[in-house]
Structures are given as C-alpha cells and as structure tokens.
Design brief:
EC 2.7.11.1, phosphoprotein, Jelly Rolls, six-stranded mixed beta sheet, binds 2-acetamido-2-deoxy-beta-D-glucopyranose, 13-stranded mixed beta sheet, 18 helices, nucleotide-binding, 23% helix, 5 domains, alpha+beta, repeat, 49 strands, non-specific serine/threonine protein kinase, single chain, Leucine-rich repeat, LRR (right-handed beta-alpha superhelix)
C-alpha cells in the first residue's frame, strides 16, 4: 500500500551529490522564469533568490505592463513588483515552449499590491490549455497567492490562460517552470497534481525556503503547533543522502515530534468537497544520532487504518512515503504517526506535501491544426482574440472556427470563417494543412493571386466561398469538378479578374478587354464566343418557356403595373436592346464610375441620352456566376413589373457580356436601414410600409404572375433597390428559378441564398418552394420593423439569436414597443406595427404550410399602410399623401389565418 524509497548505495550517491552540488550552485537549466510585465528584452538575476528572470513579452501579445504601488514594494522579491494586466479580452494566454513528456512544476504567482489604485483585488480563473486549473483570489492586497501544479505536457508548448469571469481584471506577476525527475510524484497519466500544502515541519527559523535551497525551486512554508516540538541538527548538503525527491537539506535538518513523547503525532485536513482526490508525500530523515539502546520506529495510520510502517528513519538520509494511488471519498483525512511498542523514541516527520488531483486530460487541438491556424493568423495578421487552444474549452473556441470533438482524440478544426477580415495577399498555403476542413469562407477580403490547387486536396471540403476578393487566373479544375458533382458548394463571384469556367478568357479584366492579349489567346476566345451563342439560344428557349403576364385583378394597382411595364426609354424598343461594347464604353464614360459589385460583376453608372442607367458587366467568373448571369438574363427578358428592376439592354460583344438596367438612385433598403450609406435616409414607418408593399408586389408577381411560377431565392434587404422616389424594386435574379410544378410540391436544388434569410426548411430538405421566398421576405419585414440585423447583436457577444427568435422572446414579454426600431421614435400607429409584426412572424413560421401566400402578405401590408395613413391623416391632415386614394382602393378585406402569437 505504501511505497518506500530507500537511500541508494553511498558511493553512487556521493557521485550524484557532487553533481547535484554543482547544479545547485549555478545551473538553472531546467528553469523557465518569467517576470510578467517586465519591459521587452529585459532580464535580471533576482538578488534574494539568484533566479534569472526574463521578460514575458516573447510569450504573449496582449495585456499591459503595470507595477505595484510603491508602498507594496518594500522587501519584495523583484519578480513580484511588475505584473501584466488584461483589461480586454475574456481569455488571454501565454504560450510557453516546453519539452513534451517531461514532468514540470508550473507555478503562477499573483501579487496585487494595489497596482490599479482601486484597492480592490480581483478574482479570476486560470486555465492550462483546455482545462480549468484554479480560481485566483486574494485575502488582501499585500498577500501573494500562487497556483502550482505538477504536470507532464503532451505537446511541446503549454498555454497558460487568464480568464475574466466578470469579477475584476485578471493579472499575473510571474510564471515559473521547473523540470522534475519523472520517477517522482508519480500518478496515473491523466492525473496532474495541484499543490494544496507543502510544509517544512519543525522549522527553527520560521523562514520560507525555495531555490537555491531547493534545486527544484519548490516553496516550503514553515509550520508548527503547540502540540509539536522541534528536533534539529546541523546538516550540510554533503552529509545528507538524498532520494530523487531531493527536499532541501535545510528542511530535512529539522523535524517535528509530539510534545508528549508517548502520544501519537496527528494532523488532518477536511476537503471542501468529498470528490476531491489527494496524493500525500511525507519526507523523513533521522536528525539524531541514536545511541545503541535507542530506537525510533512508528506506523502511519489514516483515519485509524494502517497506512504504512513500521518506519525507521535513517540518520542523515531522506526517505519518502506516499500513496501509490489517489486518496478519495473521506470527509476528513486524519493521519497519525504511532510509535511501535519496541520504539524508545517518539515519531518524527520532517516535511509533508499534499496535492489535489486535477484531470487535465482534455486534449488540446491537434498540433498540426494548431500550427496551421497559428501560421494563418500570422500570415494575415488576424486581429481577433485568437489565443491559446483554438478549439477548447468550447466556451472559448476561436471566433470563426468550428471544431469536431471525438472522445479523447485531439479536437480538429472543421470550419474556418475569415470573411470580411481585411485579409490581403495570397491564399495562404497553410490552409491546406487544416486537413479536416469542411467549410472555408474567405469572402469579402482583398485576397489576390490565383486560386491555389492545394484547395483541391482538402478532402472534406463541402463549402468554399472566395467571393468578393481580387483573385485572378483560373479556378482549378479539381474544384470545378467537385462543384459540378455537387460535392462542393463553390462561390467565387465578385472577383473581377477570376475565370471560373473551363471556357473563359483568362485576361479579360471585368469589362475592359485588351485586343492584343486576346489575339494571343485565341484558343480561349473561341469557347467564349460559343458560350455567348449559348446564352442567346437559351434566351430564346426560356423566353418561350416562361410566360409572365398580368394577373387579372380589379384593383387599381394592376393598372399602374400596366402603365409602367414598358421601360421608360423611347429609344429602346424590343429590337433595340442590344449594344456593342464600344457603345457600352461610351455609355459608361469608359467605366468611369463604379456603383458597386453585383451578382457576378461590377456595376457601372451610365447615361443613355439623359437617362441614367446601371451597367453590370459580367466578369469571366465562376461557373455559378455565369449560370446566375444566364438565369438573370433569361428571367429579365420575360419578366416585367414595376416592382422588379427592368432590363433596358444588353451587350454580347465577343467576350464582353453586360446587362443594362434602369438606374436606382437611392441604392438598396439595407443601406438605409443600417444607416451605413452616406446620406442614408431615415425611413419613416410609412416609407417602410410603402417599400415593403412594393417589394411584396414584385415577389407576388413572380409567384403568381408567371407560368411556371418563379422563385427568387435571394430575397433580402440588399436586393430591394430604391429609385429617386424611394419606390422599391426587387433585383438580382441570379439565383431565381422557374418552378415547374403544381402548388404544394417542390423541386430539389443545391441550397443557395443568404444566411439569416434562408428558409430553414429549405436548407434542411433542399426542397425549394415559393414559401422559401415568403420566409426570406418575413425576415426583410422583421428587419424593417426592428432595424436589427438578421442575427441580432446582443450584449453577450457569443449569443446572436436569429431575429425571429429574438422577436418571439420579446413578444412573449408583451413588449411591442421595445422591438420597434428606436430610430422611428415611436412615430407610428401601433396597430399598424402590430399587424406588420404578425404578418412577418407568419412569414417566418418554421413550417412552410403555415406561411401565407405573397398575395395575402400584400393585402396585410396594405392594411398596415392604410392604418398608418389614417393616423397621419388625423395627426397632420395637411400632409396627406396624394397616392392615398389608390392605396386604399387596392386594399381588400381578405383575412388570412396566421399562427396566433403571444401579445
Ligand atoms: C528587443 O530585441 C529585438 C531583437 O533584438 C529588437 O528587434 C527589439 O527592438 C527590442 N525591443 C526593445 C524594446 O528593445
Ligand atoms: C517556440 O517554439 C516554436 C516552434 O518550435 C518557435 O517557432 C518559437 O519561436 C518558440 N518560441 C519561443 C518564445 O522560443
Ligand atoms: C494582509 O494579510 C497579511 C497576512 O495575513 C497581514 O499580515 C496583513 O495585516 C493584512 N493586511 C491587511 C490590510 O489586512
Ligand atoms: C523516465 O525517463 C527515462 C528516460 O529519460 C525513461 O527511461 C523512464 O522510463 C522514465 N520513467 C518513467 C516513470 O516515466
Ligand atoms: C501523553 O499521552 C499518553 C497517551 O496518549 C497519555 O496517556 C498521557 O496522559 C499523556 N500525558 C500528558 C501529560 O498529557
Ligand atoms: C541508554 O543508555 C544510556 C547510557 O549509555 C542511558 O543513560 C540511557 O538511560 C539509556 N536509555 C534507555 C532508554 O535505556
Ligand atoms: C505497525 O505495523 C506493523 C506491521 O504492519 C504491525 O505489525 C504493528 O502491529 C503495528 N503497530 C502499531 C502500534 O500499530
Ligand atoms: C486587383 O488586382 C489587380 C492586379 O491583379 C490590381 O491592378 C488592382 O488594383 C487590384 N484591385 C483592387 C481593388 O485591389
């Protein structure tokens, strides 16, 4: 039950001792001593301990250097006078290189010393890698606390993390690592030892000892009680025969024994909770040269049960007894040293260590993944709080990552989202080292260079989004193949110089072609020409396949539709819609003014006569972009409605393919709701309702006015464009699909759309139906009502509920006013808002069966508008809208069964 370590043969030990003596004198080779907060590149030898400390700046990038208040510096060991404080970030981590599979004593020291002048010491957590280590707290400002563990790292680095738990700013004063012999403090592999107590018993000096007295720099605190007395003798290092634990000679030269020589020597502790497990190490040395008629012999009991013995300490020789496995399950741990009957002397004990068991077995992320992501972080200078283990603990997973966790295997990175992160330069080859990656989003950055072949090697990759960058060249065939097969969802649009088709021209930069280069690349031009021919053929087919007309209705709105169906350009008749590239150059004043980047190309401002237009040039881009372009052309040829952007003309001059639309002077709804656009208009409730009625009518037309119905598939605020009168038109038909089936059925497609607007039922089932558009439109309405993003930003940054669940929870508290966009300043008819909320919530019903048809939505929204106008009429009779009559005229009184929601 108890192992006993006996001294080795004297000759061997003498040799060892000589070496040890040398080591003790000067060598700190197993030491890493870090003074946190010390200026960069600084180092010093501490004058009390002779320990050589270095600055922490090479181990951490975050935090600020501070110093304790002057009155706390008196007689202080130097490493405690500086500290590093972490006012920002939840988790800040040191990364310290170590030798893997080596046993370390790791100590973190904390000395508050009123460094921040508040005189309130904080409380915070300490983590080692993915595992909780300790809660750091202080009894008062002048007390040093330290947290210490014995731990064998599996990797060649450790992460020591300070975690803000909302009870003050974490800080740290020093970090010390010391290697230990691997045959000491032996535990099960998953068990690490956190120091609970380490006492020098029988101390005659009442001093604390550490390095140089202890070659492992353990800190030994003196402990004495009235019931104990001391026994000691002078002892030199050479005289003491050590075992591998090597407790300091000064500690071993004194021992405690009971005052009453016939009584037992007792001590105990009570655990905070019964699940705590312990390891105990007791060190013995006979300090008295015994006479021949003297013996000292005793047994050790734990809670009255035999634990070890009889022990006969050897003169000037260290022996250690310890529990071979963890002690557990007791409410008190009472140890007694009982002298045996034949013993003439009472029991003694020189030193004791008690450790609690920590399970640090939760693995850190696979090292290959960590290396890769760390290199990616460096390569792009990612400015996120990416510290310590990427995947763990799950609560602190790096923003933009997702990981897979499989039992005791190291977690793997499966998802990397670095969209909109200001990335510059090439696509980093380190990405290919994330071998389990399934999802990669690098969109909305400024990446340049080619799309590298190594992306093809990522076997698990299912989603790759490279959209909206400045990538050039060709998309590797491997990726195109996967995309075609449907195993990869590939997006590369908005890369003006990227060619994502086997049949597209490498050097055509968006709209501007270069004739000389083109001649060198005839073999590429030919397929382009062929595909343009393809466009036109398809146009012809589709034009006959989809028929959109005007729904026969009695309402006045229809008449307005009819009036505005034909584009308002006298020069452009049905046969005059084609433009040459030279004409496009003139119209756009040599592509002088960019309006934005649309579905799959750049949109330029243009003038035809005095009429402003928007010209979208197809960049020879992704296959999908090309298909989207085709889809849009097809639809726009047959779709005409005043609430859908209309096509004025197109260009199919060699490799230059472009579309000319009517110009929408006021951008899109998103810009105005978010206030991001310069001169964004604060849209009133009435404005919002008019825009929503417009957009709903556009969508209704696609669903009900066309045969087969057309599903837009990307309804969102950014696709609702506003003209100079803030009339809304639905745009971007790149994803739209005619829907050739009976109502209630559906088609299967590759899921496409915009996160936050995407119908969850469609996302899960791949089955597309009109009601998916209704869902997206519901999200548009919710955003319009609340001014919030599709994923609502909460104070708790980890928590971003979808706007629909956010509103449900707010409504269940009966808080209608608190959900409405505060920018409206409560200037609205609350009945109207309430009805709009109900309509929107019905649209986002999780089951598509419960969602209304767009025609019902149009009706409901018109009623909302009527209510708001009625209020305004009473409030400000003079500001009555001219169009009031027509709006009221088209309101019908059909009621739709909406899902009841809590008021
Ligand atoms: C620290 O040393 C490095 C390398 O020698 C040097 O680049 C850096 O400027 C130094 N920093 C300070 C604060 O002296
Ligand atoms: C830690 O090790 C890594 C990899 O071997 C090395 O790149 C890095 O410079 C080391 N860090 C320090 C502070 O020595
Ligand atoms: C802080 O604690 C130390 C040690 O327990 C004690 O000596 C000191 O008086 C305490 N100071 C205050 C201000 O309580
Ligand atoms: C300790 O390390 C030595 C080599 O450094 C190795 O041979 C031995 O097996 C290790 N012992 C334990 C208990 O890990
Ligand atoms: C000393 O301890 C023994 C055994 O516990 C006890 O019988 C005795 O009364 C004690 N003597 C004194 C003076 O306390
Ligand atoms: C041991 O021997 C010494 C003399 O050598 C004597 O004074 C002492 O009383 C003896 N002690 C015991 C416990 O017998
Ligand atoms: C001490 O332990 C030995 C060996 O296990 C046992 O024989 C003896 O009775 C014990 N003595 C006391 C006083 O407990
Ligand atoms: C895109 O890259 C081209 C060179 O390949 C460069 O001329 C152009 O300025 C870049 N555009 C942007 C917006 O960075």
């Amino acid at each position: 039950m108890v192992r006993r370590i006996s001294p080795r043969s004297h000759i061997v030990l003498l040799l060892l001792l000589i070496i040890v003596a040398l080591v003790q004198a000067q060598d700190q080779s197993g030491f890493i001593s870090i003074d946190c907060g010390l200026p960069q590149n600084s180092s010093y030898t501490e004058k009390h301990t002779s320990i050589f400390y270095i600055s922490d700046s090479g181990f951490i990038d975050t935090g600020v250097s501070k110093s304790v208040s002057a009155e706390f510096k008196i007689n202080l060991q130097q490493q405690l006078s500086n500290l590093r404080s972490f006012p920002s970030g939840i988790r800040n981590c040191y990364r310290i290189n170590v030798t893997s599979a080596t046993k370390y004593l790791i100590r973190a020291s904390f000395y508050y010393g009123n460094y921040d002048g508040t005189n309130v010491a904080p409380k915070f957590d300490l983590h080692l890698g993915a595992n909780f280590m300790d809660t750091v707290k202080f009894t008062n400002a002048s007390v040093t606390t330290f947290s210490e563990i014995i731990y064998t790292p599996l990797l060649d680095y450790i992460h020591l993390c300070l975690v803000n738990t909302g009870t003050g700013t974490p800080f740290i004063s020093a970090i010390e690592l010391r290697t230990l012999k691997n045959d000491t403090y032996v535990t099960q592999s998953w068990e690490s030892l956190a120091r609970l107590r380490r006492f020098d018993l029988g101390s005659t000096t009442n001093l604390q000892y550490r390095y140089k007295d202890d070659i492992y720099d353990r800190i030994w605190a003196p402990l004495g009680f009235d019931l104990w007395t001391q026994i000691s003798s002078k002892l030199t290092n050479d005289e003491l025969t050590q075992n591998h634990y090597q407790p300091p000679t000064i500690v071993m030269s004194t021992a405690a024994m009971p005052v009453n020589a016939s009584a037992s020597f007792d001590f105990y502790w009570d655990p905070d909770n019964v699940d705590e497990q312990y390891y105990v190490f007791m060190h013995f040395n006979e300090v008295k040269k015994l006479a021949p008629n003297e013996t000292r012999s005793f047994n050790v009991t734990l809670n009255g049960k035999y634990w070890g013995g009889p022990l006969v300490p050897t003169y000037q020789s260290t022996s250690t007894i310890f529990s071979p496995s963890a002690l557990a399950g007791e409410s008190r741990y009472l140890f007694s040293l009982l002298r045996t009957e034949d013993s003439t002397l009472p029991p003694i004990i020189n030193a004791i260590e008690v450790y609690t068991v920590k399970d640090f077995s939760r693995p850190e992320t696979s090292q290959d993944d960590v290396d890769a992501i760390t290199n990616i972080k460096k390569a792009y200078g990612v400015a996120r709080n990416w510290e310590a283990d990427p995947c763990g603990p799950t609560k602190y997973i790096w923003q933009g990552l997702n990981c897979s966790y499989d039992g005791n295997d190291p977690p793997r990175i499966t998802s990397l989202d670095l969209s909109s992160s200001g990335l510059k330069g090439q696509i980093s080859s380190y990405i290919s080292k994330l071998s389990m990656l399934q999802y990669l989003d690098l969109s909305n950055n400024n990446l340049s260079g080619s799309v590298p072949d190594f992306l093809t090697q990522l076997q698990s990759l299912k989603v790759l989004n490279l959209g909206n960058n400045n990538l050039t060249g060709l998309v590797p065939n491997g990726l195109l193949d996967k995309s075609k097969k449907g195993s990869l969802s590939l997006s590369v649009e908005h890369n003006p110089n990227l060619c994502a088709s086997t049949s597209c021209n490498q050097q055509t930069g968006g709209a501007i072609s270069n004739k000389k280069k083109k001649n060198n690349n005839n073999h590429i031009v030919i397929p382009i020409a062929a595909s343009i021919a393809g466009v036109l053929v398809l146009l012809a087919i589709v034009a006959t396949a989809v028929i959109c007309g005007l729904k026969k209705r009695k309402s006045k709105a229809v008449n307005i539709d009819e009036e505005q169906t034909a584009p308002n350009f006298s020069k452009i008749g049905p046969n005059q819609r084609q433009y040459t590239f030279n004409e496009i150059v003139k119209i756009t004043n040599n592509f002088n003014r960019i309006l934005g980047r649309g579905g799959f190309g750049t949109v330029y401002h243009g003038l035809i006569g005095d009429t402003q237009v928007a010209v979208k040039m197809l960049s020879p881009s992704a296959v999908r972009g090309y298909e989207q372009f085709l889809a849009e052309v097809k639809l726009l040829m047959v779709v005409h409605h005043r609430n859908l952007t209309s096509l004025i003309g197109y260009c199919n001059d060699e490799s230059n393919i472009g579309l000319i639309y009517e110009y929408m002077a006021n951008g899109n709804l998103e810009e105005h709701l978010s206030g991001k656009k310069n001169n964004a208009k604060l849209l009133s409730w009435e404005d919002r309702l008019r825009i929503s009625v417009d957009a709903a009518q556009g969508l209704e037309y696609l669903h009900s006015g066309c045969k087969p119905p057309i599903i837009h598939r990307d309804v969102k605020c950014a696709n609702i464009l506003l003209n100079e009168n803030f009339e809304a038109k639905l745009a971007d038909f790149g994803l739209s699909k005619p829907f050739p089936t009976e109502e209630g059925t559906h088609i299967s497609t590759v899921v496409a759309g915009t996160p936050g607007y995407l119908d969850p039922e469609y996302r899960d089932s791949n089955k597309l139906a009109e009601k998916s558009d209704v869902y997206s439109f519901g999200v548009v309405l919710l955003k319009m009502i609340t001014g919030q993003a599709a994923y609502v930003k909460m104070q708790d940054e980890d928590n971003k509920p979808h706007i629909s669940s956010w509103i449900s929870s707010m409504l269940s508290n009966g808080e209608i006013k608190s959900i409405v966009d505060s920018k409206l300043q409560e200037d609205f008819d609350s009945g109207s808002v309430w009805k709009a909320v109900e309509t929107a919530m019905a649209c986002v019903a999780s089951s598509s069966n419960k969602r209304p048809h767009m025609s019902d939505v149009v009706t409901q929204l018109k009623e909302c508008l009527a209510a708001e106008l009625a209020r305004k009429r009473t409030d400000h009779a003079t500001e009555q809208s001219d169009s009031l009559e027509s709006d009221l005229a088209s309101i019908s009184v059909t009621t739709t069964e909406f899902e009841p929601i809590a008021r």
